[in-house]
Amino acid sequence: MTDLRLASAAPVAGAVRGATLGLALTAGGTATVLAALPFEGALAPVAGLLVLAAAGGTMIDRLAAFHPHPRFGAANAVTLVRAGGAAVFVALALEPRLLAGTAAWGGLGLALALLALDGLDGWLARRQRLASAFGARFDMEVDALLIVALSAVALGLGKAGPWVLAIGLTRYAFVAAGWLCPALAAPLPPSARRRAVCAMVIAVLAALLAPPLVPPASALLAAAALAALAASFAVDVKRLLRRR
User: Fold this and answer.
1) Cα–Cα distances in Å, from 17 out to 12, 23, 73, 150, 163?
2) pTM for the complete prediction?
């Protein structure tokens, strides 16, 4: 019995080692980027690193149960890099002045790079035959973190009113609703519509960083993204309630 347990634990241990190394490298890279930015105090960069640490700790905790492969995989490594980028935007959301003026173009470039990587991780998982429920959920949660951070940045830059935070909070409101109504916590099948709306929302929030895009145009664009996101969630809620 002991030998069987050791044999089954070995692949999991290999994936955990890869994840731990990847998290350490990502944290180091993220800390380097944050240190290079002229934050007024330590609160913003520390908050970004704490968010990354929480995401990384949750990732490693869930790895053994939902990642049935001996390797962490390049796809999950890419998602981890995206988590580091999202953590940078968490810090910038606390000091959005750093994205004012021409500096916003750098933020726009980073957001678009993270969006491009979002299309790469799924392709890598399929190519390496390392797709898993863990990888899909990890990717989704990093998307949600990036969206809420970019929504907060949009508010801080005055691109839209406080309602723009609803774009980032919709996912978390859906999760909270699942606690109150178990039918909404049931798993949903993969959806091209869901992926397309998520990519569109990230693209819109990235575009809001562009200095020429100001209210009312920026607010209208954000409102369109919120409407599309709400409609997508409404479809999923209706499906889950019908299933009940």
Assistant:
1) 9, 10, 11, 31, 41
2) 0.91
